[in-house]
Amino acid sequence: MGKNVDDLAQLKQFKEWFDNRHEYAKKWKKKTGGKVVGYYCTYVPEEILYAAGVLPVRILGSHEPESITRPYLHDMYCPFCHDTLAQGLEGRYDYLDGVTLAQSCLHMRQSYFSFVDRVPNIEWDYYLPFPHGVTNPYAADFAKHEFENFKAAVEDWLGVTITDRDLDRAIEVYNKNRELMTKVFEMRKADNPPITGLHAMYMVVSSQVVDKAEHNEVLEGFVEELQDVENDREIGTRLMLIGSEDYDKELFELIEYGMNYPATFVFEENCTGARYFWGLVENGDDRLMALAKRYVYRVPCPAKDWARGDFFGRRRFQFIEEVIKDYNVDAVIIAQMKFCDPHELDIPALREMLDNMGVTHLHLELDLTQPVGQFRTRVEAMIEAMGEEDLFI
Amino acid sequence: MSRIKKLKATSKMREIMLAYYMQGKQAEEVSWVTSGAPVEFLYAMDVYPIYPENHAALIGATKMGPNFSQIAENEGFSQDLCSYARCDIGSAMVGSSPIGGLPKPNFLLCCNNICNTVVKWYEVLSRMFKVPLFILDVPFVRKELRESYVNYVEEQLYDFIRFLEKVTGEEFDESRFREVISLSIQGVNAYRDVLLMGRHKPSPLTCFDAFLNMAPIVCLRGTETPIGFYGELKEELEERVKNGVGAVDNEEIRLLWDNIPIWYELKRLSEFFIDHNACLVADTYTNAWTGILRLENKSDPIRSLAETYTFIYLNLGLELMAEAINRLIDVYDVDGVVIHSNRSCKPYSFGQYEIQKMIDVPSVVIEADMTDSRVFSMAQVETRLEAFLERLKS
Question: What's the CA gap between B307 and A279, in Å, rounded?
């Protein structure tokens, strides 16, 4: 008899890191005496910080109702940017020594500026220019140049020199993390995937808030243990999640554990899922160029995803198409953060692509907290409608 | 009878813009272009530039914003999206508008120095019309304009020239380009002189006049038209000054407007301020076009363009934005600022609460949308403005 995935110590560890991310960072600081830098958006080359001995942690929200951000942010900025700022204002990130943002969207930029100005004790902040035109031919050169400035600023702040060896070590740790998480995702292609979307979310998001080397150790064990997992849950409809950052466990619990019809996520195409770790740094002599290429050519955030000169070559859509085939996806849940305009403008085209592929889809708009009851009805209705064809055979 | 003193030039502007759109329908090579893009390249290559943003403003001013927005919304575009984008996409879908729709583009030029939404919006257009899209990616200037930003933009401008040569089949003519730039600078100067008339007390124009008459500098910059038009407009304003005529009788309070206008309420808002003896003597929106093309480096116009199109108002960090507002407060000697929190325009509404704390005079925030009247409540806005004006008067 194989093991139950929920009993795995590694999974429990991911969940514990996810739930207690602030405590982890505080303990890490105490233990190592190192600096912690919070980052907005997954375009920050964490490797450079890591090479300097810094712990990079992603700034995340808490999905709790709040009203303290209104003196700083208008209502039409996305709930994620309100939520992250709220955490800062409430003092939950008071352990951060620095904050950084790689140019992404206006919402993040707005939240970042207010965070830097309003959260006490931040001794270092860095706004990292990063190309939006990730498909234009000069993007990698520009990113590399800005990464050089970023590296110099980190060195200057900490009074250290980041050597090529430091960078190699950091790249190695980060690549290993990427490889291991990709391996776990690959296992989800199986008819009976060993993990759910909730598990994957714990794994990926915990990797964004803890020391990657430590995460790798647990991940290695996880990959091994997953070979022996025997899933006793009914997989039901194989779902893919596409959209904005989504680390609200309520949504996963609802769809995978709380409905009248069984359903399981087999892939998450978002920045708390595959978009974060997909694609390695292909190391070369020029480390910063290698990093620049990885971040410029990764599966893009919709804010940066467009085709240059023609309308066929969009990287993210091509990626989605491949995943749907490889992972045998039955239906797609498009979960978009309210007010996220890059997603909002992509969704009609995405729906059209899914329609052409004959893949059922449902669009949910995420807010600070989720209307779980409504979502249940809608997801159940979608699954029910998918089964209608069988009724008429 | 309306208390608004209309400018004669405004009827001329309508004729100019009608002719501009009509000519566009006959043009061989048409590009749709964002408002902050370096249009000089297009005029130099005989490509007719069409501005969906200006067209959406026209839709807003004719109070048809909700109508065209809903067409896009029915196709799945969120109501939370920029209403210019929704109006434009909606209008393109059905091929109609108050001027009978826009001419179909041969290609698209989008520059993200004004916002990120345009990038995705233009991609939608690119798919819809199946035409090539060129995106000029401009880094955001948080505190200072760095050389690396200018290098990056400059490289792309040369790339754009190659793109233009490919799509038009014509060779880029540098002397023609220099001519266009020279016209552009003259137009911008003539336009700035018009806006500066607002320094007079009483001011001969309001920002509503500036809004109504801004289309030529946006759409026809790089041609002879704005030079002549703004020259005439300035003469008309000078005549008012000579005769001691203000745009608002009994100008007691001088104000600055921040953000895009509320196009469908220009008349009511204009009358509201007249009734309260308050004159909006300037605004950050129309002034954004006066900064274009300072062209300090005349020997290398392309590098100069890269610099000026990177350092434009909506692409600046909060401190620089607040500095620009304080400069306007100083130049136009204003008593207060009316800040429009524009539901549609995130970059323009960016950090307004923070900016409020950085500027030198009192300000008020009103919530609205530039073209979508469904999210606007005149009663609420009036109450807030009345309280603000009372405060300034006391």
Answer: 35
* ipTM value: 0.90
Which residue is associated with the tokens 């290695």? Answer: A220
Answer yes or no: is B1 within a domain. no
Please report where in the chains the tokens 């996409």 appear, as a residue.
B89
Q: Is A344 on the interface with B (CB under 8 A)?
A: yes
Phi then psi for residue A52, to 5 deg, are -90, 5
- Backbone CA torsion sign across A248, A55, A130, B313: positive
In this structure, is the dihedral angle defined by the CA atoms of residues A246, A251, A253 and A256, taken in order, positive or negative?
negative
How many CB pairs below 8 Å do chains A and B form together?
A: 133
Task: Inspect the interface and report whether the beta carbons of B148 and A346 lie closer than 8 Å.
Answer: no
Contact B140 A103 (CB under 8 A): yes
Domain ranges, residue B388: 178-393
Separation of alpha carbons B366 and B350, rounded Å: 14
B chain contacts of residue A310, beta-carbon cutoff 8 Å: 132
Residue A153 sits in which domain range? 32-163
pLDDT tens-place string over residues A260-308:
999 999 999 999 999 999 999 997 889 999 999 999 999 999 998 877 6
Interface test with B, best of A107, A118, A132 (most B CBs within 10 A): A132
Considering the entire predicted model, what is its pTM?
0.93
The answer to whether the Cβ–Cβ distance between A109 and B350 falls below 8 Å is yes
Which domain CATH number covers B95? 3.40.50.11890
- B140, B36 contact by CB (below 8 A): no
Entry field: residues in chain B: 394
From chain B, pick out residues whose CB is under 8 angstroms from the CB of A349.
124, 127
* CATH number of the domain to which A37 belongs: 3.40.50.11890
Separation between Cα atoms, residue B60 and residue B41, nearest integer Å: 29
Each residue's pLDDT tens digit, B214-229: 999 999 999 999 999 9
Cα angle, residue B177 at apex, residues B175 and B181 outer, rounded to 5°: 115
